[in-house]
Amino acid sequence: MNKSDLIWIKLMNFGHRLGCHQMEERSFHFKGYQFPVCARCTGVFLGEIIAILLLLLGIKINIFMSIALLLIMGFDWFIQYIKLLPSTNIRRLITGTFGGIGLTFIYYYVIVFIINLIISFIH
């Protein structure tokens, strides 16, 4: 076993601990190695990074758009689950990215709400 194999095994274990199913056919591959998380989880992580960058730049999307983005990912999962339309890894990546953006902004709005609630109790 070489160094790349050992790194890959550690990353796969980390992806498993994050809760990803890691199905090989639903994951991207790079240089013969499966990504440690599936295409949808890869998209969610990408979306979370994009949302954090948007927040740092002072760009916000409203709560309704956040929910809509999350629902897009849920809808893609649902139509795949009921076998209405097979999903592809590219579609999983795109809808996962939407879901990650939406979820992160929902977290943001919940945190802001809680902080404002605490501040209102203090004053």
Structure notes:
There is one protein chain. By secondary structure, the chain is mostly helical. The chain has a domain of 85 residues. It contains four helices and two strands. The protein has a two-stranded antiparallel sheet with strand order 1-2. A hairpin with a 2-residue loop joins strand 1 and strand 2. The model has no long low-confidence stretch (mean pLDDT 93).
Largest sheet: 2 strands, antiparallel
Mean pLDDT: 93
Number of helices: 4
Structural class: mainly alpha
Question: Helicity level, as a percent range?
Answer: 55-70%
Cα gyration radius (Å): 17 Å
Intertermini distance = 61 Å
Strand order of the largest sheet: 1-2
Shape: globular
The count of strands amounts to: 2
Element-by-element helix/strand order: HEEHHH
| Spans where pLDDT lies below 50 across 5 or more residues | none
Give the amount of beta strand, in percent: under 5%
